[in-house]
Amino acid sequence: MPVTATASAPFRRGSTVKGDEIAHLVTLAFGASVLLVTVLLIWNLWGASAASRSKFGFGFLWGTNWDPNANDFGAFPFVYGTVMTSVMALVISVPLGVGAAIFLAELAPAGLSSACTFLVELLAAVPSVIYGMLAIFTVVPLMREYIEPALKGAFGYLPQFQGPMLGIGYLTAAVVLAIMTFPYIIAISREALLEVPRDQREAALALGATRWETTFKVVVPYARLGILGSIFLGLARALGETMAITMVIGNDSTLHASWFAPGYTIAAVLANDFAEATGKVYQSALVELGLVLFLVTIVINALARLLVLATTRKGSAKAA
Amino acid sequence: MKTSIALAGILLAGSSLASAQAINGAGASFPYPIYGKWFEEFRQKNPSVEINYQSKGSGAGIAQLTAGTVDFGASDMPMKDEQIAALKVKALHFPTVLGGVVPTFNLPGINDLKFSSEAMAGIFLGKITKWNDPRIAKANPGVKLPATDVIVVHRADGSGTTFVFTDYLSKISPEWKSGPGANTSIKWPTGVGQQGNEGVAGMVKNTPGAIGYVELIYVLKNNMGYGSVENAAGVYLRANLDTVTAAAAGAAKDMPADFRVSITNAPGKNSYPIASFTWLLIPTQIPDAQKRAALVNFLKWMLVDGQKDCAALGYAPLPRQVVAQEQKQIAMIH
After folding, report:
1. Predicted TM-score of the model (pTM)
2. A173, B38, B164, B203: least CB-packed within 10 angstroms?
3. Does the CB of B184 have a partner CB in chain A at under 8 Å?
4. ipTM of the complex
């Protein structure tokens, strides 16, 4: 083996350089396709939303009326519903998901951990319409009969917890989104925690830290970036989720203060209205909503990057 | 599922009927079950003609007809003037069958309710918020109505069913007409939206105090209960195939020549007030002689033999006067 390797070395070097060039060009083309798809997407949405953009201008973003009959369209109820349900979902699923990931990575016996991990990965791959069915048949009655009355009893003096309890609305949508996003958060957070070097744990333990202190003061901060990444992935799924949400959010474009009340999200209204949207302005308003969803995603991603940057600096400052 | 059936159809056509004339249509989903049956029966009688139909919704049907990507369209609502103006080739409206829309509700222990026009408008405008409201109770003496919230359930997806129902509300309530109005999707004053007849029916079934509207054909298939509605003559009627056809007959006397007519709140003691035609939209000029002959033959067959399929599938057949008037209109296809 070593003999042949040295014998063919010059020839191989030549071919490697050639191969490098080809690989370089091919991967460059693949990389460029990312840019191409993004540009195409924006160009398309921008062009097809012309009628709506020229009619409503920037007012489209904070308009609260959505009336196909009067040809008057505003995006605010949908933006509110989308951001609101996604954020509420993360408030529920982040502690749950990160907590579960810590247990699976740090504390659980190996057999249990691998069994649970398999299930988590299975859950992450379940199509969203299946979650929608779970929502309709299980979550909605549970919310209507038990959770919403309990919340109303405890916090009924707040406007967020008033009004009729339908079991359908912002809160239910958020709970369903939480159920859908937390497998992602567990799966990726667990990977991040497992990648923390053994030395780090051993060093902390050697310094006299308890297991608990080691996990929270050393392992979790070390895996911070991975955990944040899992949360952003969960957020991305929540922002774009369509089928499961339209089944439980109530699809009402009127703004309500109550979390029990029906609402709407951008993805849901696109799915519901597009097929029967007649008239140029109506159709282009829907396309513009797509553009707005794109914008919301970009803004939230940018905020997330800033958050990562800020916490990384803080972390390194502390370390120094 | 649909794709696989379509694929099977294409394969069949490809293998056995290489020279079959393919005619493509698209539009309303409400009449899809009977259109599917008709096109298949017609193909068996005329093996040289293959009519394909995509059930994508009335709006899509009109859009595709306007773009010229299909040979004919189908819609649950008549085309508006501006939609007609956008057509390159004028199209004719051919009513095919009738459908009704019924109120379905969930009040434990109560199986039948009568809804006056005042009650219907009040409920869907969000003005009547409790079931024991006098405006509901007035028409239902002896029924013990609970003091619970009225929860309105409507369609979330754009739909011909919503058009028929809101068209009816516009006729019985000036406030509805000047407010939400009639369309395939509107800005609802109150309530929650669900997708499809099954979504609305399911939500009503699971939510005490809920009321929604679904197609008659859907409640007949699923043996659901539904309420009676006050008609233009002040009579409370339950929807069935007879009262729906009667509504069309009641409106037939004043049928406009182009068949673009709404038959909600039609005159006549036996006319169910929330009913509608569904239309085939056929271009007046079809340059391909073979296609033209096939479509003309299909229309002639549909108006006579095809109508016999209606009852079994839960559709109300066309009244005789309307059939006679449509048979004359066929001559306008060139």
Report:
1. 0.84
2. B38
3. yes
4. 0.80
